[in-house]
What we know:
The complex is a heterodimer. By secondary structure, chain A is an alpha+beta fold. Helix content of chain A is 35%, strand content 29%. In chain A, strands 2-1-3 form a 3-stranded antiparallel sheet, with helices on one face. Chain B has a 9-stranded mixed sheet with strand order 2-1-3-4-11-10-9-6-7, sandwiched between helices. In chain B, strands 5-8 form a two-stranded antiparallel sheet. Chain B has a single domain, classed as 3-Layer(aba) Sandwich (Rossmann fold), CATH 3.40.50.
Amino acid sequence: MKAIVNIFLKDGVLDPQGKAIHHALDAMNFEGVEDVRMGKQIVLKLSTTSKEKALDEVEKMAQEILANTVIEDYTIEIVE
Amino acid sequence: MRSIAILQFPGTNCDLDTKYAFEKLGCKTQIVWHKETTLPTNIDLVVIPGGFSYGDYLRAGAIAKFSPIIRAVVEYADSGGRVLGICNGFQILTEIGLLEGALKRNINLHFISKLQSIKVINSDNAFLQKYEEGKILYIPIAHADGNYYIDDSGYKKLKENGQILLQYTDARGEREIVNGSVDSIAGICNRDRNVFGLMPHPERAIESILGSEDGVKMLEGLISE
């Protein structure tokens, strides 16, 4: 079982990397990009077969270390 | 004689500068490896020096937070002991939660390394007691993640409690955007004023040959009553 954790800066927290990518896209004449947010993805391979248990554990991991909840939000997706 | 514990993580690189600076002031220093579970006895100050603990992997300071020595540092701080975090040390202190807020990537995405003017905002604390409020200091900065963030309500509390200690300014003392920090904050303390964190490096501003001696009184303040 795999857990995919996506971590992004919270809405309202300025994302300098996203901004820089946005500028680059503008400079390359890609049109219609309204906003860019850059985050990170952490993929965990888990031994458990219980989806519920996996979600529980990864939630704790995200809270305690994977994300800094002062500035970041996260989502967790469990894949079979 | 004052006794200082200086923490060392894999990737710390300002430990020896910090040791040199405090020894120059007549202190006894001990470098404490992060795997230790206790601090030396009878110390007067714990310093978490600058560098790149664990290569800044995940986030600056994020992995160091789980080093064995950290629990002892939290206990030391909770019992009123003085703790100073410089640069990466400041990042670690926010990750642990001993200081509020967080440090993000600099607004211009550059690693900024230069002598920077900063202003003393509040000197009613051990760290800045030897300066006058409003004084402009020149202290080197060297960081990629110094963009201090705190939400609005947190910021208001910092301000009300006098926890904002240093701000980036120009030479006349006007606030300057250096790395994107909320209100140009360069250094703060906790509510009880025994835990201090700043991005500038006072230990690199202790001899005129290095360009500035403005950091000496910060270190002296911490080892005074």
